[in-house]
Amino acid sequence: MKHLSALGKYFWKYRVRLGTGIFFVALSNYFNVLSPQLMKFIINYVDRSLSLTGAPHAAGLKGYDILVRKFISFITRYSSIAKVVLVASIIILLLALLRGFFMFLMRQTIIVMSRHIEYDQKNEVYTQYQQLDNRFFKSHTTGDLMNRIAEDVSRVRIFTGPAIMYIVNLLTTILFCVFFMVQSSVELTIYVMIPLPILAVIIYFVNSNIHKKSEQIQAALSDLTTNAQESYSGIRVIKSFNQENAMYRFFTDNSETYRKNAIALARVEAVYFPSIQLLIGISTLFTIMIGGLYYIHHQHGITLGTIVEFIVYVNMLTFPVSAIGLTASMVQRAAASQKRLNEFLDIVPEVKNEPGAAPVALEGKIDFDNVNFTFPDTGIRAIRAFDLHIRKGEKIAVTGRTGSGKTTLAQLLLRMYDADSGMIRLDNKNIKEIDLSSLREQISYVPQDVFLFSDTVENNIRFGKPDAGREEVVAAATIAGVAKEIEGFANGYETMIGERGVTLSGGQKQRISIARALIKQSAIIIFDDCLSAVDAKTEQEIMGRLNAYLNDKTSIIITHRVFSLLSFDRILVLDEGKIVEQGSHEELMKIPDGFYARLYHRQQSGTEDENEAEK
Length: 615
Ligand SMILES: Nc1ncnc2c1ncn2[C@@H]1O[C@H](COP(=O)(O)OP(=O)(O)OP(=O)(O)O)[C@@H](O)[C@H]1O
Hints:
By secondary structure, the protein is of the alpha/beta class. Helices cover about 60% and strands about 10% of the residues. Helix 7 runs antiparallel to helix 10. The protein is elongated. Adenosine-5'-triphosphate binds near residues 375, 378 and 448.
C-alpha cells in the first residue's frame, strides 16, 4: 500500500473533484437508505389504518431519519389512505431519481478524475523515459517499458477511479444501513449481522486465491503477447527458415497455459459469487424468521414495516459486500503496478544536466583529452587514453575493425554516456558544462541503425528541424541522394513509410536518415557507417555533394569503405579504443603493413570484404 502514496500528489492536484466525488457518493447512498424507512412507515401506516393484522403498532417516529420525518408529516396531512400511499410512492421514486442523479455526478467527478490522473501519469512516465540514458534502455526491454506505460498505468487508474468509488460506496452504504438498522431494531441487526464474519473469512481466502490466479493469467498473457508479437515482426525469418510449425507449437503451448489458468480462475469465481449470495440469503432468512417471530410474539416493537425495511437494507448491502473482494484485488494490483512505476520514476539518469550547464552556440572545435570509457554493463573498455583534437571545420574519417570503438566515440560526443575519466571539450568548454539539449541540438548524428517513424517521408526528414519548409526538405533529400527516388513514389514526399506505407530498401532508409541529419544544419555532423547499404557509385556521388555541404562544418565520418575517404583532412584508424594510425591518405599509405594501406589495397582490388582485410 505504501507504494500508492506516490499518488498523493495527484489526489492533491484533483482534490476538489475527489472531495466532491466522495460527497456525491455519500449523498447518493443517503438518499438510497431513506426509501426503506418510508416503506416501513407506509406499510405500518396501512396496517394500522386498516387494522389488518390486529397487532399493536409502534407509535411515534422513533428510528426515522430527520428528512423522512419531514416527509411523513407532509404525507400524513392527506386524509385518504390511497393518497398517502400515492404521495409516499412518488417520494420514493424521487429519492431513487436523486440517488441516480448523484451517482451520475459521482462518476462524473471520480472517474473523470481518474482519467486525468491516468493522463498525467502517462506523461510523467513518458517524460522520465525521455530523460533516462542509454544505460537504462540497455537493461530494460521494449516490452517492459511498454507494459509499464500502458498496463501498469491502467491498473493504477482502476484504483484511482472505480476502486476509490467502490471503497467510498462500500463504507457509506454499510455505515448508513447499519446506523438506521440499529435505530430501527438492535436485536434484528445483530441477527442479520451474524453471517458477516463468515463472509469476511470467505472473501479473504477466495480473494487471495483469485489474486494469485489473476497474476498467473497476466504472466501467461504477457508470454502469449510477446510470442505473437515476435512471430509477426520476425515473420520473414520464420518463413525463410521454414519454422512456421515450430512457432505454431510454441504459440499453442502458451495458449494452453493461458487457457488452463483462465479456467482455474473461472472455477474459483464460480464458487465465490454464489457463496456470497448464499450468505446474504441467510441474512434475509434471519430477518424474516427472527423478525417474524418477534412480530408474532409482539416483541422488541418489530412491525411488518420493520421486516420489510430490513430486507431492503440487506439487499442494499449485497452489492457493496460482494464487491469487497474485487475492490481489494484492484487495490493490490494497483499497488504492485505503482511499485513497478516507482522503480522507473525514482531512477535518476546518470547523464543529466549538471548544475550551471548553459546553452552555447557551437562552432565546431572538438578535443578529447586522455578520455577513458568502459561500458558499465559489459565491462568492455571501449575507449582508452584517447587524445584527439579536431579543428573547426575539419573533415575527419574514422575507420578500424568492428568493435574498435568508433560508435562509442560518437556516443560520447553526444553525451549518451559520460567518460569515466579525461575530458571532452567543445569550443574549449567542458562538454558537461553545456546544456544537454543545446548540445544534442547542435550535433547532427546519423546512426548506424536506421530508424524511421511510421509517418510520411517529409515528416521523417523534417524530424531534424520541425519548422523546416518543403524546399529545405527537398534540398536535404537532394544532398543525401534520395530526392529522385522520393519523387518517383506515387505520393512523393507525402508517401507513408512503414507498416501502413511503402517498404523502402535499406539504402533508401539510410539516405532518408542522412537527409534528416542534414536538414539540421549543425556545426558538427557525425555519420556512423551510414552508407553501408548503398552501392559504391552512389556513395561516391553523395560524398561529392556532401563536400560542399560540409564546407563550413566539422564532420566525423565513420566508415569501413576507405576508397571514399580521399577528400578528408585527416583519417584515423582505431583499434581497441585507441588511435593506431592517423594522417592523410598519402601518409597512411606509406605506413608499411598498416591497417589502412592493407584495407585500401584490398578494396581497390575489388574485394570489399573488410573481414579479410582485418586478418
Ligand atoms: N551499449 C553497449 N553496451 C556494452 N558494450 C558495448 C555497447 N556498445 C558497444 N559495446 C562494446 O564496445 C566496443 C566498441 O563498440 P563500438 O560500437 O564503439 O565499435 P565500432 O568500432 O563502432 O564497431 P562497428 O564498426 O562494428 O560499428 C565493442 O567491444 C562492443 O562490444
